[in-house]
Amino acid sequence: xxxxxxxxxxxxxxxxxxxxxxxxxxxxxxxxxxxxxxxxxxxxxxxxxxxxxxxxxxxxxxxxxxxxxxxxxxxxxxxxxxxxxxxxxxxxxxxxxxxxxxxxxxxxxxxxxxxxxxxxxxxxxxxxxxxxxxxxxxxxxxxxxxxxxxxxxxxxxxxxxxxxxxxxxxxxxxxxxxxxxxxxxxxxxxxxxxxxxxxxxxxxxxxxxxxxxxxxxxxxxxxxxxxxxxxxxxxxxxxxxxxxxxxxxxxxxxxxxxxxxxxxxxxxxxxxxxxxxxxxxxxxxxxxxxxxxxxxxxxxxxxxxxxxxxxxxxxxxxxxxxxxxxxxxxxxxxxxxxxxxxxxxxxxxxxxxxxxxxxxxxxxxxxxxxxxxxxxxxxxxxxxxxxxxxxxxxxxxxxxxxxxxxxxxxxxxxxxxxxxxxxxxxxxxxxxxxxxxxxxxxxxxxxxxxxxxxxxxxxxxxxxxxxxxxxxxxxxxxxxxxxxxxxxxxxxxxxxxxxxxxxxxxxxxxxxxxxxxxxxxxxxxxxxxxxxxxxxxxxxxxxxxxxxxxxxxxxxxxxxxxxxxxxxxxxxxxxxxxxxxxxxxxxxxxxxxxxxxxxxxxxxxxxxxxxxxxxxxxxxxxxxxxxxxxxxxxxxxxxxxxxxxxxxxxxxxxxxxxxxxxxxxxxxxxxxxxxxxxxxxxxxxxxxxxxxxxxxxxxxxxxxxxx
Length: 707
Hints:
This protein is 36% helix and 18% strand. The protein is of the alpha+beta class. The strands form 8 sheets. Strands 20-21-23-22-24-27 form a 6-stranded antiparallel sheet, with helices on both faces. The chain has a 5-stranded antiparallel sheet with strand order 6-7-8-9-10, with helices on one face. A 4-stranded antiparallel sheet has the order 1-2-3-4.
């Protein structure tokens, strides 16, 4: 990936995009993704917007789900305390700097969230007087000495004047850049003019100058033609920046790939196509905000893939390290076994010399000779050629041992062993030579037994390490995923399912949702259902056709209605009934009232046959555009001819099963218009009943059944 930060042009375009999405929205919550990245969840008119802010790097809304921290950080908790549930009143760029300021709330309750996108970056929360409440990092400006810390005032309204390029400003920048012979013209102007490398390169290319030439090698005079062209190019850049007004309705975006191929990697993004982008493949987006989301999401995905590969390599490396450690342990034990065996054989080959050495040392010690004097005497005797003294390498009298230099006789050696160095063997002064050799044999047996046990346990250790590695790899697979947020349909807040004939059936989860279903979402032509038992949920069949709802759909809705009633717990078989919307009323008889979620049913109730209490579950999915042709004509109304209308038009399309957005009723419609003015006297001949709550008459009046 090429570009990693936002420029001034990017900030201006992004603020314009965010204003259209966020003004008037309320902050639902704040989450932290890591120490520098936070997610603001905002809601406006039923639409949820997730705004991702990363200190010093980026700000944009996102359509992708990312893993959040299990526990919110202290900074995140402080943000929640001050901005959660508040309305977004303003989103603006501070001057022409890479600083974005959000305003939440009004008056003395207002707070400002400031995001700095330059240098090390920062996220700062201010009160209505611009006093810092909390910030991500404290720092001091080296130039002015101003401190950015808690309880200090932040210069939110003291932004520098907007930049305006002039011939004097440009000439001064060129001269200062030329003072360093190693600096290129592009780098020098980027540093001096604060336009950013991309816009400076665009201006240089527009003026016909080589961006790679050293600033000292370029001759730009105040009255020269090249200076005039460059000044004109920067004036065009200023007009481009001014053209991205924060009041714009929609700022388009573009992602630039490294090559001319559409499969090449992402290299840059921006709201405008610059001169240096010519000849490269461009991905155009309707919104600059969407372009940023796509660019940085791909960058995050690649980063997570790299981390995943490293974690997989580390997990596999742990198994390899365990295997190598066991092999090294076995090799060390094998070498120790051979060493103990070799020393035992050396003592056996030199029994007489070893016994004489033990005898001499013991006799000297029994005479009370000083240890230091004994060492000196052995050295002196060794120089004189005493064979016993020459065998003794050192004394370890503190452990009652001596170290002898032993070797096999020349007759018993081959050529290689004759040139090998002698072996130092520790001998215990408390026992004779034979007992010392047996001690080495015993040690050799113990080491051999330990090596055998280590080899037997090696398989178990490797299997255990492999199990842990597999568990770690499984966690890596689950953790490293960025998924796109699925748009929630309006009806998903309710209990819902789609019948075999493609009719949407809705049910309330509680009394408030029962009330909402009838008042807001039940239209003329729909069907109202209720179980013939107290404690059942309101069900509605949304009729998207001009024909009556078919019997199979009514039967399935009735079964769901009974199963979601008190009959399920009581294991009691009962019936459900359906009525038309005009028979459902919220007006109670004089002197009575209806609680939330309760309704009056006037007129005839159409009872459905009793059914067994059986429920199942299904998977609802949306078809890809390329698969629609394979599902034409599915989910027809049962019992109708081939030429009849397909019930799949519930979605507004005959062949798309899951797109139910066209089903949303008109919010301006009044579902009670058909029953207004209907009194109890008019309905008395047909019967009156109450559903969804207690019986307001106290007598359980049943509706009159006819036929």
